Amino acid sequence: MDENTVLKKVNSIFIDVFEDQSILLNENTKADDVEAWDSLNHIQMITAIEKHFKIRFELNELLNFTNVGDLCKGILKKLN
Fold first, then answer.
1. Contact yes or no for 25/72 (Cβ under 8 A)
2. Does the N-terminal or the C-terminal CB of the chain have fewer CB atoms within 10 Å?
């Protein structure tokens, strides 16, 4: 699996969690760029990502993600 494939799946998860079909993520997307990305939706999004990819993030990993690209790289690291 490559970063582009992960990004596409993460985008699909965002659409489901945020209930917004217009979301189009890229590696530089940050929380401020997605209108509904608040703390509650953030938790739901991380939970959905962990469930889909069958991974678990440590708190320190989550705190170091600054954008969607960091999140995708974190997913790939867990999968490899």
1. no
2. C
